[in-house]
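Before drawing any conclusions, I needed to go through one protein's amino acid sequence and its C-alpha coordinates, quoted below without any editing.
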Amino acid sequence: MEKCRKTERERMTNGESFFTNDPQLMEDKKNARILCSRFNSSPEDESLRKALLKQLFGHCGERIAIKPPFHCDYGYNIFAGDDLFINFDCVFLDAAPIRIGEHCMIGPKTCIYAIGHPLDAESRIEKIGIPKPVTIGDNVWIGGGVTILPGVSIGDSTVIAAASVVTKSFPDHVVIAGNPAKIIKNIEE
Protein backbone atom coordinates (compact mmCIF):
# COMPACT_ATOMS: atom_id res chain seq x y z
CA MET A 1 0.00 0.00 0.00
CA GLU A 2 1.38 3.38 -1.02
CA LYS A 3 1.52 6.13 1.60
CA CYS A 4 -0.27 9.37 0.82
CA ARG A 5 2.28 12.13 0.35
CA LYS A 6 1.46 15.48 1.94
CA THR A 7 1.13 18.46 -0.33
CA GLU A 8 3.59 21.30 0.17
CA ARG A 9 0.72 23.44 1.46
CA GLU A 10 -0.09 20.74 4.05
CA ARG A 11 3.58 20.60 5.04
CA MET A 12 3.71 24.40 5.32
CA THR A 13 0.52 24.71 7.38
CA ASN A 14 1.66 21.82 9.64
CA GLY A 15 4.88 23.69 10.48
CA GLU A 16 7.14 21.38 8.45
CA SER A 17 9.83 22.49 6.02
CA PHE A 18 8.40 22.85 2.52
CA PHE A 19 9.27 23.70 -1.10
CA THR A 20 8.45 27.41 -1.44
CA ASN A 21 8.18 27.30 -5.24
CA ASP A 22 5.53 24.56 -5.29
CA PRO A 23 3.06 25.32 -8.13
CA GLN A 24 0.01 25.35 -5.81
CA LEU A 25 1.76 27.66 -3.33
CA MET A 26 2.84 29.93 -6.18
CA GLU A 27 -0.82 30.11 -7.26
CA ASP A 28 -1.84 30.88 -3.67
CA LYS A 29 0.73 33.71 -3.58
CA LYS A 30 -0.55 35.03 -6.91
CA ASN A 31 -4.12 35.12 -5.57
CA ALA A 32 -2.96 36.95 -2.43
CA ARG A 33 -1.05 39.49 -4.51
CA ILE A 34 -4.12 40.11 -6.69
CA LEU A 35 -6.22 40.80 -3.58
CA CYS A 36 -3.46 42.98 -2.09
CA SER A 37 -3.23 44.92 -5.34
CA ARG A 38 -6.99 45.50 -5.35
CA PHE A 39 -6.83 46.54 -1.70
CA ASN A 40 -3.84 48.84 -2.24
CA SER A 41 -5.45 50.61 -5.20
CA SER A 42 -8.90 50.88 -3.60
CA PRO A 43 -10.49 54.27 -2.93
CA GLU A 44 -10.90 55.51 0.66
CA ASP A 45 -13.82 53.15 1.24
CA GLU A 46 -13.48 51.21 4.49
CA SER A 47 -16.38 48.84 3.69
CA LEU A 48 -14.75 47.83 0.38
CA ARG A 49 -11.38 47.42 2.08
CA LYS A 50 -12.90 45.29 4.85
CA ALA A 51 -14.60 43.07 2.25
CA LEU A 52 -11.25 42.55 0.49
CA LEU A 53 -9.54 41.75 3.81
CA LYS A 54 -12.24 39.19 4.64
CA GLN A 55 -11.41 37.47 1.31
CA LEU A 56 -7.67 37.69 1.93
CA PHE A 57 -7.28 36.81 5.62
CA GLY A 58 -8.00 33.52 7.34
CA HIS A 59 -10.03 35.60 9.81
CA CYS A 60 -10.46 39.26 10.61
CA GLY A 61 -12.51 40.98 13.27
CA GLU A 62 -15.32 43.38 12.54
CA ARG A 63 -13.38 46.55 13.34
CA ILE A 64 -10.23 46.44 11.24
CA ALA A 65 -8.43 49.25 9.41
CA ILE A 66 -5.31 48.82 7.33
CA LYS A 67 -3.73 51.71 5.46
CA PRO A 68 -2.36 50.75 2.05
CA PRO A 69 0.00 49.59 0.88
CA PHE A 70 -0.14 46.23 2.63
CA HIS A 71 1.61 43.09 1.39
CA CYS A 72 1.52 39.42 2.39
CA ASP A 73 2.45 36.04 0.93
CA TYR A 74 -0.74 34.01 1.33
CA GLY A 75 -3.21 35.93 3.48
CA TYR A 76 -5.08 32.83 4.60
CA ASN A 77 -2.55 32.37 7.43
CA ILE A 78 -3.32 35.79 8.95
CA PHE A 79 -5.84 35.76 11.80
CA ALA A 80 -6.72 39.20 13.14
CA GLY A 81 -8.85 40.02 16.17
CA ASP A 82 -11.36 42.83 16.51
CA ASP A 83 -10.31 46.49 16.67
CA LEU A 84 -7.04 46.22 14.74
CA PHE A 85 -5.26 49.17 13.15
CA ILE A 86 -2.32 48.62 10.80
CA ASN A 87 -0.60 51.72 9.44
CA PHE A 88 0.99 52.25 5.99
CA ASP A 89 3.48 49.97 4.22
CA CYS A 90 3.43 46.79 6.32
CA VAL A 91 4.64 43.36 5.12
CA PHE A 92 3.45 40.06 6.64
CA LEU A 93 5.16 36.89 5.36
CA ASP A 94 2.58 34.35 6.50
CA ALA A 95 3.87 30.87 5.61
CA ALA A 96 2.96 29.95 9.21
CA PRO A 97 0.03 31.53 11.04
CA ILE A 98 0.30 35.14 12.14
CA ARG A 99 -2.22 35.63 14.95
CA ILE A 100 -2.99 39.13 16.15
CA GLY A 101 -5.20 39.70 19.21
CA GLU A 102 -7.84 42.31 19.82
CA HIS A 103 -7.33 46.08 20.24
CA CYS A 104 -3.89 46.15 18.61
CA MET A 105 -2.09 48.96 16.80
CA ILE A 106 0.73 48.29 14.34
CA GLY A 107 2.92 51.17 13.14
CA PRO A 108 3.99 51.90 9.57
CA LYS A 109 6.67 49.83 7.84
CA THR A 110 6.32 46.97 10.32
CA CYS A 111 7.39 43.58 9.01
CA ILE A 112 6.23 40.28 10.50
CA TYR A 113 8.04 37.20 9.22
CA ALA A 114 6.54 33.75 9.92
CA ILE A 115 9.05 31.99 7.69
CA GLY A 116 12.76 31.31 7.86
CA HIS A 117 15.19 29.41 5.67
CA PRO A 118 17.82 26.75 6.36
CA LEU A 119 21.36 27.75 7.25
CA ASP A 120 22.90 25.36 4.73
CA ALA A 121 23.20 26.78 1.23
CA GLU A 122 22.04 23.61 -0.58
CA SER A 123 18.64 23.69 1.11
CA ARG A 124 18.26 27.41 0.42
CA ILE A 125 19.15 26.84 -3.24
CA GLU A 126 16.41 24.17 -3.30
CA LYS A 127 13.95 26.88 -2.09
CA ILE A 128 13.15 25.26 1.26
CA GLY A 129 11.15 27.32 3.75
CA ILE A 130 10.76 26.76 7.49
CA PRO A 131 7.42 28.07 8.79
CA LYS A 132 7.27 29.32 12.38
CA PRO A 133 4.12 31.03 13.70
CA VAL A 134 4.02 34.53 15.18
CA THR A 135 1.50 35.35 17.90
CA ILE A 136 0.67 38.86 19.10
CA GLY A 137 -1.53 39.17 22.19
CA ASP A 138 -4.38 41.56 22.94
CA ASN A 139 -3.85 45.33 23.46
CA VAL A 140 -0.39 45.34 21.87
CA TRP A 141 1.10 48.51 20.41
CA ILE A 142 3.86 48.00 17.84
CA GLY A 143 5.78 51.13 16.84
CA GLY A 144 6.81 52.01 13.31
CA GLY A 145 9.57 50.14 11.52
CA VAL A 146 9.49 47.10 13.82
CA THR A 147 10.66 43.72 12.54
CA ILE A 148 9.27 40.58 14.19
CA LEU A 149 11.11 37.36 13.37
CA PRO A 150 9.70 33.82 12.98
CA GLY A 151 8.51 31.91 16.02
CA VAL A 152 8.00 34.95 18.27
CA SER A 153 5.10 35.44 20.71
CA ILE A 154 4.28 38.86 22.17
CA GLY A 155 2.29 38.98 25.42
CA ASP A 156 -0.85 41.00 26.10
CA SER A 157 -0.57 44.77 26.62
CA THR A 158 3.06 44.84 25.52
CA VAL A 159 4.54 47.88 23.75
CA ILE A 160 7.29 47.50 21.13
CA ALA A 161 9.33 50.65 20.53
CA ALA A 162 9.83 51.89 16.98
CA ALA A 163 12.63 50.33 14.91
CA SER A 164 13.01 47.34 17.26
CA VAL A 165 14.00 43.91 15.98
CA VAL A 166 12.14 41.24 17.93
CA THR A 167 14.12 38.00 17.86
CA LYS A 168 12.53 36.17 20.81
CA SER A 169 9.25 35.98 22.73
CA PHE A 170 8.20 38.42 25.47
CA PRO A 171 5.65 38.28 28.31
CA ASP A 172 2.61 40.45 29.06
CA HIS A 173 2.82 44.09 30.23
CA VAL A 174 6.33 45.10 29.19
CA VAL A 175 7.93 47.72 26.98
CA ILE A 176 10.59 46.30 24.69
CA ALA A 177 13.08 48.11 22.51
CA GLY A 178 16.31 47.72 20.58
CA ASN A 179 18.12 45.42 18.20
CA PRO A 180 17.75 42.79 19.42
CA ALA A 181 14.77 43.89 21.48
CA LYS A 182 14.94 43.55 25.25
CA ILE A 183 12.69 44.54 28.13
CA ILE A 184 13.29 48.14 29.14
CA LYS A 185 10.31 48.60 31.45
CA ASN A 186 7.47 46.72 33.11
CA ILE A 187 4.00 48.20 32.71
CA GLU A 188 1.88 48.33 35.85
CA GLU A 189 -1.51 46.68 35.49
Remarks:
- Residues 98 and 134 are 5 Å apart (CA to CA).
